[in-house]
Amino acid sequence: MSNKISFFYENTDFKLDKIMKRRAWILEVLKIHSFKLGELNIIFTDDEYLLDINKEYLNHDFYTDIITFNNCEGDVISGDLFISVDRVKENSVSYNESFERELNRVIIHGILHLMGYDDLTKEDEKSMRAMENNFLELF
After folding, report:
1. CB contact at 8 A, 10 and 48
2. Do strands 76-84 and 36-45 pair parallel, antiparallel, or not at all (unpaired)?
3. Which of 10, 30, 106, 124 could cross-link 45 (Cys pair, CB 3.0–4.6 Å)?
4. Residue 27, Cβ neighbours under 10 Å: how many?
5. Cβ atoms < 10 Å from Cβ of 90
6. Which pLDDT tens digit goes with each residue over 14-68?
7. What does the pLDDT look like over 68-88, one tens digit per residue?
8. Distance from the Cα of residue 110 to its chain's centroid
9. CATH number for 130
10. Phi and psi based region of residue 33 (left: phi greater than 0; alpha: psi -120 to 50; beta: remaining)
11. Domains in the chain, number
């Protein structure tokens, strides 16, 4: 177990700020749900890069804000979160949210998926949104 959160950038000029605060926040969310950190990679990219991943690995031909690859084992959270900065920017305008809050929502959304939560049904989506809102307040 490596206990590491790493941030990477592909095809974007975006650079994340408040990295230490975000690491502590993610660790707190994991602790609340009794999970341990393995290796978590958060990769920020543009729409086209994420679209290529969506097509290649999921056979989906549409833009999305995040794709989560789960490598978890038991209560140890490990995986890769690919996040489109373009989508987050557009969604922040659509939802009348700050870019930072929408970015945090997408990050925590991916973390929740790694913890085993899904949003396939309306009920699951509502539950996930409530958890996202709760954890956004922790930040």
Report:
1. no
2. parallel
3. 10
4. 17
5. 15
6. 999 999 999 999 999 999 999 999 999 999 999 999 999 999 999 999 999 999 9
7. 999 999 999 999 999 999 999
8. 3
9. 3.40.390.30
10. alpha
11. 1
Handedness of CA 59, 113, 13, 39 (dihedral sign): negative
Q: What's the domain range around 131?
A: 4-138
Whether the full predicted model's pTM is greater than 0.85, yes or no, is yes
70 by DSSP, 3-state: which?
Answer: strand
Cβ 105 vs Cβ 135: under 8 Å? no
Residue 100, both tokens: 């930072």
Radius of gyration of the chain (CA): 14
Render 10-67 in DSSP notation, one character per residue.
Answer: SS-------HHHHHHHHHHHHHHTT-EEEEEEEEEE-HHHHHHHHHHHH---S--SEE
